[in-house]
Amino acid sequence: MPCQDSELKAAKTAYRSAKAEGNHREEARWANVIGDIHKNRGEYVEALKWLRIDYDVSLKYLLEKDLLPTCQSIGEMYLRLEQFSEALTYQKKHLELAREADDVVEQQRASTQLGRTYHELFSRSDHDHNSIRNAKKYFNFAMELAVALKKKPPSSKSSFLKEYIDAHNNKGMLEMELDNLQEAKEILTRGLEICDEEEVSEFDDGRSRLHHNLGNVYMELRNWNEARWNIKMDIQICNKIGHRQGEAKGYINLGELHSRTQKYEEAISFYNKALGLARSLEDEDALVRQIEQNIRTVKEAVKVMDEIKKEEQNLKKLKRDIAVARGTPNERKCLLQQNGSLERLVEKSRMISAWEKHCEFAKEKKRIASELCDKQRLGDSYMDVGESYQKLRKFNKAIKRYKKSWEMYQTIGSLEGQALVKINIGNVLDSAQKWREALDAYTESYRIAVEAQLPDIQLSALENMHYSNMIRFDDESETKRLKILIDKLKNSIEAESGAKNMAEDCCSETDTEADNNLSIAGSDDLCSPHTSSRSKALSTGEEFIDDMPLMSIYQSLKGSSRKTTGHMEDLTSTKQADKSSKSLTNLTGNHQAVVGRKRVRVILSDDEEEMECSSKRSHDCVLEDRSTYDANMSKVSPSNIKFLGWQVISENGSKLPINVEESSSSFKCWSPHTLAKTCRHSRSMSNDLVAELDLPSGSKCNTDASGKPSDAAPPASNSSQYDKYIECQIGNDLIHIEATWCTASDKLDIESLKAVAACLYYLQLPTQKRSDGLLPVVQHILCAGRDLESLETVENLQICNVTIEASIDGWIHKRLIKMYVDFCKQLSEKPNMKVLKKLYNLEVSDDEIVVSECDLQDLSITPLINALQSQKAFSMLDLSHNLLGNGTMEALQKVFTASDQHYGDLTLDLHCNRFGPTALLQICECSVLFDRLEVLNISGNRLTDACGSYLSTILKKCKALYSLNVENCCITSRTIQKIADALDSTSVLAYLCIGHNSPVSGNTIVNLLSKLSTLKRFSELNLSGLKLGKPVVDALCQLAGTLSLSGLILGGTSIGTEGVMQLAEPLLKGAEEFVKLDLSYCGLTSNFVSNINVNLFCSILELNLEGNPVLPEGGNTLCSLLVNPSCSLKVLVLRKCQLGLAGVLHIIEALAENNSLEELNLADNTVPNELYALKSDLTVKGDSEKHDQILDTIKLAGNQEVHCSVNLDYHQLEVADSEDETVKAAASGIDDSASSCQRNSSSAECLLTQQLAVAIGKAKKLQLLDLSNNAFSLEAAETFYNSWTSVRVPSQKHINEGIMHFSTKEKKCCRVKPCCKKVLPL
Question: Any bridge partners for residue 1022, and if so which?
């Protein structure tokens, strides 16, 4: 450690020295070295910090090829930190740069890393089809490149043999993950053969990894000798090279091998060796804990083995008893006792994976069932024998026994049993690589389960069908269809389960009575609850007495007619309502290891809480063999698994990651989450282990034999995941819509919901149907037969458990969406739903590409860039508010150049991204843009002064440019001066925004204004955020006198009252309308506003006085402006103007006589103690007129009158009845509950609320009103909204935590950010 500290100190000293000298190459190199030191110490967050410094310096100052090692290192760090999306971003960037540089070596390394990340993503997901596809694609590509590099290395210094061997290890491990054990064995064996052919060192770490994974493969194939030899070779190599972690994990696997063969003393011995090695390592507490857990588990298995031996002695005694009882009335009872003993032995053998013994006991159990003439038990026994052979990998024998079980269930008419057997047959066929036949078996099981109305088995069959289509056949459309069915069925089962549990809690006595009616056979089967709790279901439907002679039973069976039923007949007193669920458990309780999702394993734990089993399901905690394992083994949450087995640890099990070999192509799994869910090591090329979850190997999902969700995945977890979705039915198709895609402030956005529904419907269409690019137009969405409202919340929909229905009212051609989806599929990327929504927007033309706020990055935008290149022609491209960098601009330059379109206006909106100065270089070098570019918005990007020459070039060459926005771009006076120098009288520039840049000197601004005065078309200037002195004000006055300005944005300039007064006359002198004047936060006083010339301000369309103390006195002047017939104001912003609530009321009242204002912002205008003063005034008036009422006659829009009175005794406003006609509250915009006011509210508040509501109702032209943060109650807000809706249909509201917005559909609030308002040509 002291050596590492000195190394780190020296590296940091070198870094600081390089930075001080301005040597950027050395600065980046030393930052990388420091990051590598921290990585080797396991300090990943600190390492990432330094690697980011390396990346930023390289990106800014060095060549792109210098980013290759940095991207690789950052991608590795994010993978170790389990931030997979970020890891993929940098790994794909690494691959992209490597391809551009034509660097095959880096391409091979990047492909390997991508394969690792996608493999990890697949191991954590139930249904991630894309991840397994991509893992295969990148591992195969890495293998191809490794072969090419091996044949023709680019340099003589390296033969790239290590990468070639590691590629075999990775590919073999992936095949093992997919349960293709023979293929995995061949690939890994070939890797060892290459080591021998190339004379690789006997103790090479690559050999160690190959031996490790081969040991696992042979263990799954039950080839114990080969498994033992390979594991020992792994241990020997790790010991020789001093890799104590690998050696410890080798001993863990050797312990598991002996545990599987029931050699428990040897297993504990090897675990103890592993424990000693693990304890010698620093920060390997997790590894130590897991080894100790394995030792405890083996000791539990020893106890189970002792119980088996005792039960075998009991069985021998029962066999002696049956010899005496032959032909007597006790014969059947003795046979039932013997059957119960065998069932206990079968169950305990299953718990410790003693499959040879399991087979022996199952065969004996089958013989007893034959003597009992019990076809139900006989079918169960055949299933037990089939399970034994399946685990022993004797697949032909397993199929034979399962078919006999099928015949028995057919004979007694048990559809349940038939469906379960078909699933088990499918699992055997899948292991035998007869995948089509396996899928047919699963499909048949599903058909039978649907016919018998058995949802749990339906779910199990669907999970297996999904597995086959996803893993075996790579059928994307069928996989999606099955996933939708699975989700819907799970939701239905969970709902029924919750209702049943509630009912059982209320009826425990009834359950007890039902359990008391179980057969004598059940009392014998103390450890076989599947027998003890099952209803008797003999084919005749008769109940036999235990001491009845067997010959009598045989004759009765022979003479009776067979009864065919969909499920087991319940002939006891158990209630019919419990029959289906109980019979399912009863029939299949002893087969829970063989049904469900294929080969996912449950492990046993000594945890007391987890080992606590119910009286009905005492065998819930079972240990399943790990002879075969599912490709989906890690799909079940480890925190929910019940354990009784061997937990074998991932190589990444320590809290601090392992110091592994630095091969860039190594497959390293660093997930701490995989630690708890492993049952076997699958080591990667760096001696890491791929964690694999062991659940019952007969299933593909975390369900028990009955198909019910087991404890491995409780309904709660499924429910929490499902709560994020809304079910929507379109025709016969059911789609699940993520709630976040179509909600705003927890309320549904109906238009977004329609767009998402249309896009998801299009995505689930078969490829052939998508080829036309036709998307549905969804006009109506119904919920429970009524139109869905925007006010509806997702929670309300889920509480009501309803599925919304969408109707298709036509189709629209969206060629760009079609191309975008196609390119996503081609690049194995998931389509971005935000992008799809934006492209689907029916309110914009196909020539306008608006994809703002879509979380796009340089890599994720690639499919869209490719689609744009295919479309070629478009007039507007809005990429604002994303995470795009210079790479995107390079790609766009290629798009514009390829289009070769030199005509047609183009708007390019790139604001609020991560573009640097060189992004503008791409515009400068694209001749196509010189004739087309009219609007360029690059604000909110860190351009710095390095962009000055580029901006100058753009202004000179782009002759059509009339709008330029470089606000908040970290530029200074130097760049502003270059902009000024580039302008001449031929420029058509009409709009310029340079605000919020610093420092910008006054002289520079004066020079700029002087140049602007020479332009013929210039009309709008934005200087917001710049501090303007008197020289600048004088220059502005001169500019206003020279040009006819239509807009001046001076927000935050602190120009002051004098400056505005000096500027107002030349600015507003003309008769033409002045479009926009922004004087927000300019330090104006109330005297200025009070004394303004109303006639002078009448020509303004948009006026912003935010942040200036207008006060009520100034508010009166503004009221005079609003009532002036010549007033042209359309937008008025009076936020934070200290108007007071009385001033707010007067402003809104003035709108009754205004026919122009459309948007009004009166937020944050409360004055301290104002409401208290209103109350005091009203109280005084109330005392003087104690028994009088103040009558307010409110004239409504329809010339109706409603008399409102304030009852001062009770502080309650009342609405009197009209004798002539009943006036509804809706007519006045005041609902009954609000208009009468709450009894506990003050009359002052009530009166103010009513007056405001009436004023809002009279402001007919207003389309957007903001009353946020004015201390109004929710009741008042509802009153205002009722008044708002009385004259505006349709209307919308946004009320949440102080926000109070009322709007029309056309002027929807919060729809556009202030920085996103478009500048239109003037």
Answer: 993, 1049
CB 228 within 8 A of CB 219: no
Residue closest to 581 by CA, chosen among 591, 567, 571, 602? 567
Confidence of residue 284 (pLDDT cuts 50, 70, 90): low
- Alpha carbon distance 98, 86 (integer Å): 18
The label of the residue with tokens 């450690």 reads: 1
Among 36-50, 218-232, 1034-1048, where is mean pLDDT lowest? 36-50
- CB count within 10 Å of CB 40 equals 15
> Are 1212 and 1239 contacting, i.e. CB atoms less than 8 angstroms apart?
yes
Cross-strand bridge partners of residue 747: 744, 793
Buried/exposed code over 76-102 (b: 16+ C-beta within 10 A; e: otherwise): bbbbbbeebebbbbbbbbbbbbbeeee
Nearest to 308 by CA among 270, 356, 269, 265: 356
Residue that the structure tokens 């599912």 belong to: 630
Return d(Cα 854, Cα 835) in angstroms, integer: 6
Let me know: does 1076 contact 1020? Beta carbons within 8 Å. yes
Phi/psi of residue 1074, nearest 5 degrees? -95, 115
Q: Whole-prediction pTM value?
A: 0.53
Q: Please state, as a whole number, how many other Cβ atoms lie within 10 Å of the Cβ of residue 241.
A: 17
Question: 1123, 1153 in Cβ contact below 8 A?
Answer: yes
| Residues near 179 by beta carbon (within 8 Å), at least 6 away in sequence | 430, 431, 598, 599, 628, 629, 630, 631
Q: Return the biggest CA–CA distance within the chain.
A: 124
Question: In the structure encoding, which two tokens stand for residue 720, read together?
Answer: 């929490």
The pair of three-digit structure tokens given for residue 1116, joined into one six-digit string: 């009166």
Look-up: residue for tokens 């056309």?
1306
For residue 566, the SS3 value is coil
| Cis-peptide into 1066, omega within 30 deg | no
pLDDT per residue as tens digits for the range 996-1031 = 998 999 999 999 999 999 998 999 999 999 999 999
CA–CA distance, 414 with 421 (Å, rounded to integer): 11
Residue 523 has pLDDT above 70, yes or no: no
State how beta strands 725-730 and 804-813 pair.
Answer: parallel
Going by C-alpha positions, the residue among 975, 972, 923, 973 that lies closest to residue 947 is 975
**8 Å CB contact between 1009 and 1041:** no
Q: 664-680 pLDDT, tens per residue?
A: 333 333 333 333 333 33
CB atoms within 10 A of CB 309: 9
Residues 1028, 1002 contacting (CB under 8 angstroms): yes
Nearest Cα to Cα of residue 628 among 474, 432, 442, 461: 432
Q: Where are the alpha helices (DSSP H) in 413-524?
A: 415-431, 435-451, 455-467, 476-506, 508-515, 520-524
DSSP state of 650: P
Mean per-residue pLDDT over the chain, rounded: 76
φ and ψ at residue 841, rounded to 5 degrees: -45, 115
Question: Phi, psi at residue 1161, to the nearest 5°?
Answer: -115, 110
Residue 957 has pLDDT above 50, yes or no: yes
What is the β-pairing status of strands 804-813 and 786-787?
unpaired
